[in-house]
Amino acid sequence: MLVDEALTRFTAYQQARNFSALTVAAYSADLERFLSFCAAEEGLSRAELETEQLTVPVVRYYTRVLAGAGLSKRSIARHAAAIRSFCKFLCREGILTLSPAQKLLTPKRDMSLPRFLYREHTEKLLTAPDGDAAGRRDRVLLELLYGSGLRVSELVALNVTDADLEGMILRVKGKGRKQRIVPLTAPAARALGDYLATRGRPEEKALLLNRRGGRLSDRSVRRDLARLAAAAGLGQHVHPHMLRHTFATDLLDGGADLRSVQELLGHKRLSSTQIYTHLSREKIRAVYMAAHPRAQIAAPEEQEK
């Protein structure tokens, strides 16, 4: 089978399995690059390359080429995951007998702790919106990203009917269109009630609207959040996922158990949530100083005072 036909079938399979549009696009881009590389190695055009020409040596060589091109370990791992998934699909469909990527080794990704906001910075950000119509929407945006821990894609996909102000809950569609229920904080419910009462356009089903009255986009949220962070004087770049990180960190700092945080975040695997157990250095030191017997002994410089 020609690889272009196989790629079309693989993309259709992902869409049928409710993969997010971003995931499908990322896999397609990575596989387009990989298949073009394979064709060049065989001295063929992409239109001539067949699935049988995807071999173990060329797959392994490709990851070495990516490393030589200066791609990060995270990027190489993402490319490798796309190739593995594609080859696994070809085997499942009977197009290939053995996967050329079955034993593909990729570098371990460097562990990077999520960046989050400290409490005083969060408070400054939450008070940044003005009292006008745009400010009322911005307040909802902040309260839902931080108070309910939403992904930006989940935020902009919300419809008016997804919010139950009386029950203080949101019905959220997460990855794979999996629905979950998340709580609305009292400030979020108040902000949302004020916004809906004054925004107009009752016929529009989208919850958050842009200035033209249409559904708010991911890009607009990122731009508005950067503007609000600057207005709050935070002196750092703040992106939507940072508020989600802050949501999880503050819950764990407050004593929430990991399983509950996993459910609230909509993580499929607990390992995705465990990265938030880092807690802040101040929190760890405060717990240590209050609990460990040796921590109660004064430091030499304090003894001399």
Structural overview:
Helix 2 (21-42) crosses helix 4 and helix 3 packs antiparallel against helix 4. The chain has helices at 3-16, 21-42, 56-68, 73-92, 119-126, 133-147, 152-157, 186-198, 218-231, 240-253, 258-265, 270-274, 281-291, 300-303; strands at residues 163-164, 169-173, 179-183. The protein starts with a helix and ends with a helix. The protein has a three-stranded antiparallel β-sheet with strand order 1-2-3. Strand 1 and strand 2 (169-173) form a beta hairpin. The protein is mainly alpha-helical. The protein has 14 helices and three strands. Among the domains are: 3-92, DNA polymerase, domain 1 (Orthogonal Bundle), CATH 1.10.150; 119-239, Intergrase catalytic core (hpI Integrase, Chain A), CATH 1.10.443.
Main sheet overview: 3 strands, antiparallel
Question: Shape, please?
Answer: globular
Q: Average pLDDT value?
A: 85
Q: What is the CATH first-level class name of the domain at 119-239?
A: Mainly Alpha
Question: If classified by CATH, what would the architecture of the domain at 119-239 be?
Answer: Orthogonal Bundle
Major sheet strand order: 1-2-3
Q: What is the helix fraction of residues, given as a range?
A: 40-55%
* Low-pLDDT regions: 299-305
Order of helices and strands: HHHHHHHEEEHHHHHHH
Q: In percent terms, what proportion of residues is strand?
A: under 5%
CATH topology of the domain at 119-239: hpI Integrase, Chain A
Span of the ends, CA to CA: 81 Å
- Total helices: the number is 14
User: Structural class of the helix and strand makeup?
Assistant: mainly alpha
Quick one: CATH superfamily of the domain at 119-239? Intergrase catalytic core
**How many strand units?**
3
Radius of gyration: 24 Å
